[in-house]
Amino acid sequence: MRRIGLSGVLAGLVLASCVPPGKPARPPATTYRPPTPRPAYDAAARRQCLAQLTADGARYSVLPDRDFGNGCSAIGTVQLDDIGMPVSNLGAMTCPLADAFTRWTRDATQKAAQAWLDSPVVKIESFGTYSCRPVNGVAGARLSEHGLSNAVDISGFVLANGRRITVLADWNGPDEYARNFLRAVHDAGCRRFSVVLGPDANALHRNHLHFDMGRGPYCK
Question: Could you tell me which residue ranges the Extensin-like C-terminal domain spans (predicted)?
Answer without folding.
Answer: 48-220
